[in-house]
Amino acid sequence: MSTFNAPRGTYDLLPPDSATYLAVREAMAAPLRRSGYGYVETPGFESVELFARGVGESTDIVTKEMYTLTTRGGDELALRPEGTASVLRAALEANLHRGGNLPVKLWYSGSYYRYERPQKGRYRHFSQVGAEAIGAEDPTLDAELIVLAYDAYRSLGLSGFRLLLNSLGDRTCRPGYRSVLQEFLRGLDLDEQTRARIEINPLRVLDDKRESVQRQLAGAPMMRDHLCEECKAFHEEVRALLTDAGVPFEDDPRLVRGLDYYTRTTFEFVHDGLGSQSAIGGGGRYDGLAEMIGGPQLPSVGWALGVDRTVLALEAEGVDLALPAVTEVYAVPLGEEARRRLFHLVTELRREGVAADLAYGGKGMKNAMKSANRSGARFALLLGERDLAEGVVQLKDLASGEQTALELAAAVAGVRDKLR
Ligand code: AMP
């Protein structure tokens, strides 16, 4: 114990569990790397205004959940609550969209911060892997991203998740739907805060999780019945491409998501083993966002997958990832000269790509063997005075107990042979 604890709503990633997080991030990134997405990294904080304009002034994220600060120089900054606005800001700033090579395809991985009420699966600091395809209005791109997310989850061995799909329309058809929806909502029995939301962002009311609200929404008008011909055709094409790629989905006409920038395609991956915080990833098309943050019109689509919740989903399904061994060989020196020789050997093994570790701190044989067993290594390398005199080192199989003497001078090759 120390005097300090991790801040409320946060937790530390420690070995051995941290290896699972690395593997999940890697599994999410691998399909992107194979699909023309380049890695992007942006600062952990941005101007508050970027998120206010980008994510939406009326969203919970902006009104309640941002960690904001004023710098000594007077700048208003916020720890990033999500990735899309930052990535688009970076792409515009560097003019990646100029030169005609569209879409610009980017992926990222990092920490995000939201001042939320902590519970299982909902943290104030969490980790996402995200992808954005900027500057193309093409349903194939929407389908590509959804397929890549689906493949990432499947490659981890997950199966208990569902893909929810919807279209939110565009600037042609959404305004009309918005009015129809507002009219319907104004006739309901709702609290003051929700009534205010009807005027600012009525679609968000559909997302209200409270039973009392959901009950009244039974007959609400749905965007899908108000889509213009172009949005309808676009959405049908996304659906057809997904079906063709073998990606099952459920049409969810109520899916609106918590960020204001979405247009047309919106989707969420939910896992049925996670309780209330079931969304393991989500995204959609955001054709208006570039303009909202002062750029040109750049129709784009993207997603963010939650690393923390994906790890919880693996636990819920009892999936054990086949992680590479942390340590394959554990060296146990007995005496000063043996320590030097084994340190040399361990260094050589590591340079040859073998995961090797050594008993440090002058441990006795018994303690050192305990550490060897705890390390998960397949073999221990034992070196004592008699071995030194004979020019050998003992390679002990920690599972069977079987021991073989290897010539010390040729030990690297000998160990590699045995590992093979
Ligand atoms: P969002 O942009 O809010 O849809 O977030 C994308 C994904 O990030 C979600 O589907 C979650 O898996 C994850 N996520 C969002 N907020 C949190 C949080 N507070 N704690 C843990 N994971 C989160």
From TrEMBL:
Q: Which residues form the Aminoacyl-transfer RNA synthetases class-II family profile domain?
A: 1-324
| Name of the protein described by the UniProt record | Histidine--tRNA ligase
Q: Gene symbol?
A: hisS
Protein family membership: Belongs to the class-II aminoacyl-tRNA synthetase family.
Going by the UniProt record, its keywords in alphabetical order are:
Aminoacyl-tRNA synthetase, ATP-binding, Cytoplasm, Ligase, Nucleotide-binding, Protein biosynthesis
Name the GO cellular-component terms: cytoplasm
CDD domains attached to this UniProt entry: HisRS-like_core, HisRS_anticodon
The question of whether DNA-binding is a record keyword is answered with no
The UniProt entry's GO biological process terms, in alphabetical order, are: histidyl-tRNA aminoacylation
Entry's localization field: Cytoplasm
Q: Which reaction does it catalyse?
A: tRNA(His) + L-histidine + ATP = L-histidyl-tRNA(His) + AMP + diphosphate + H(+)
